[in-house]
Design the sequence.
C-alpha cells in the first residue's frame, strides 16, 4: 500500500506529490510551519490527507512550543495550519479534533499534553486508513461488473493516509473479483489524474486508461462507462459536493447519459453546518498553474486567468454518497443526518 505520510521522531515525512510520477521522494517537515507550507504548496493534497497532516502539524508544533507561552503558541500553530487551504473541511476537522483534545487535558502537565497530542495524530492516521477500507466495502457492490469506471482528480491513497476513497471503492471492487477497468481524467490544470491516479493504479496492476478532461462526455455517451466515482473536499448538509474543478461537468454529463455518479468520502468531509454548496468557499489558485505546465509556458505573456481549484456539484446530479457508515441517497438532508448521527 502507498504510504502518503508518516510520523517519525524527526518530524512528519510525506511523499512529495508535486514530483510524481517521475520522482518518488519523501520530504521531512521538522516543524509545523513546514507542514503548513507542504499543505499550501500541494506537496501533500487531498482532503483526508491534509486533515491527517494538519493533526500531525499541531502535534509537532506542540512538541516545540515553549512552556511559558504554550497556549498562545498553540493557538498560532492551529491558525497557521488553518490558513493554508480554505475548501477542504477535513483540514479544519483535524485541527479542531486536536484543539478539543487539548481542552480536555486542561490542568494536565504539558509533558502529558504533548504526549497525548502525538498519540492522537497517530490515531487519526490509522483511523483514516480503516475508514477508507470501510468506504471501499460499501462502495464495491455499486460498481458494475464488466464495465469501466470513470474517475476525476485523485481520490486515492495519495489523497488520504492510504487506500483511498474513490480509488478505495475501485480497489475494493477489484479485490472482490469484479472485472473492471478505469478511465482517469487528466484533471487540468494540476494534472492530478494523469500524474497521480494513473501512477497509483498502475502500481496496483489495475487496468487504467488516461483521457483528457474534454473526452469524458464522449466516453459517457458511448455506453462503456458503468459508473463515475469521485472524492470530495466538502459536502454540504443537503448533499451538494465541492470537489476538484471539472467534477460538476462530469456529473452533468453522467446524468445526461444515464450513468450513476457516486461520491466517496468519509463522514469528516460532511459539513452539516452549511445548508448548501453555495456556502462552500472556493479556493482560487495562482494563474501560473494555467498559463504554464511545469515551467513551460502555454499561453501568451499577460494572459488574464481565472483558476478556481474546485467547483460545486448540486445534489440532483449525485446518485449516492459513499461513506464509512453506508451509502446516502436523496433526500440527502435526511440520509446524511442519519449517517452522521450513526443511525
Sequence:
Amino acid at each position: 500500500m502507498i504510504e502518503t505520510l508518516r510520523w517519525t521522531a524527526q518530524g512528519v515525512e510525506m511523499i512529495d506529490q508535486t514530483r510524481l510520477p517521475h520522482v518518488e521522494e519523501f520530504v521531512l517537515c521538522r516543524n509545523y510551519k513546514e507542514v503548513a507550507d507542504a499543505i499550501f504548496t500541494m506537496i501533500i493534497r487531498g482532503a483526508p490527507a491534509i486533515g491527517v497532516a494538519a493533526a500531525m502539524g499541531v502535534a509537532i508544533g506542540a512538541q516545540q512550543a515553549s512552556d511559558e507561552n504554550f497556549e498562545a503558541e498553540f493557538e498560532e500553530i492551529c491558525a497557521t495550519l488553518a490558513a493554508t487551504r480554505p475548501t477542504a473541511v477535513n483540514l479544519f476537522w483535524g485541527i479542531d479534533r486536536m484543539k478539543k483534545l487539548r481542552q480536555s487535558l486542561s490542568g494536565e502537565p504539558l509533558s502529558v499534553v504533548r504526549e497525548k497530542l502525538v498519540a492522537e495524530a497517530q490515531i487519526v492516521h490509522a483511523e483514516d486508513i480503516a475508514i477508507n477500507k470501510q468506504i471501499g466495502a460499501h462502495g464495491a457492490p455499486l460498481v458494475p461488473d464488466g464495465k469501466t469506471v470513470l474517475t476525476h482528480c485523485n481520490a486515492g491513497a495519495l489523497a488520504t493516509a492510504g487506500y483511498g476513497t474513490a480509488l478505495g471503492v475501485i480497489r475494493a471492487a477489484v479485490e472482490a473479483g469484479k472485472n473492471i477497468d478505469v478511465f482517469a481524467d487528466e484533471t487540468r490544470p494540476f494534472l492530478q489524474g494523469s500524474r497521480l491516479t494513473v501512477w497509483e493504479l498502475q502500481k496496483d496492476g489495475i487496468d487504467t486508461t488516461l483521457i483528457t478532461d474534454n473526452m469524458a462526455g464522449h466516453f459517457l455517451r458511448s455506453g462503456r462507462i458503468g459508473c463515475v466515482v469521485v472524492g470530495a473536499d466538502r459536502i454540504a448538509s443537503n448533499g451538494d459536493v465541492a470537489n476538484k474543478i471539472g467534477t460538476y461537468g462530469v456529473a452533468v454529463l453522467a446524468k445526461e447519459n444515464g450513468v450513476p455518479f457516486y461520491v466517496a468520502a468519509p463522514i469528516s468531509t460532511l459539513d452539516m453546518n452549511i445548508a448548501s454548496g453555495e456556502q462552500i468557499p472556493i479556493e482560487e489558485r495562482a494563474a501560473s498553474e494555467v498559463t504554464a505546465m511545469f515551467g513551460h509556458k502555454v499561453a501568451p505573456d499577460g494572459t488574464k486567468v481565472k483558476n478556481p481549484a474546485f467547483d460545486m456539484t448540486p445534489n440532483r446530479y449525485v446518485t449516492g454518497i459513499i461513506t464509512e457508515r453506508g451509502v446516502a441517497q436523496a433526500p440527502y438532508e435526511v440520509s446524511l443526518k442519519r449517517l452522521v448521527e450513526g443511525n
The two ends are 32 Å apart (CA to CA). Residues 320 and 330 are 8 Å apart (CA to CA). The chain has a mean pLDDT of 96.
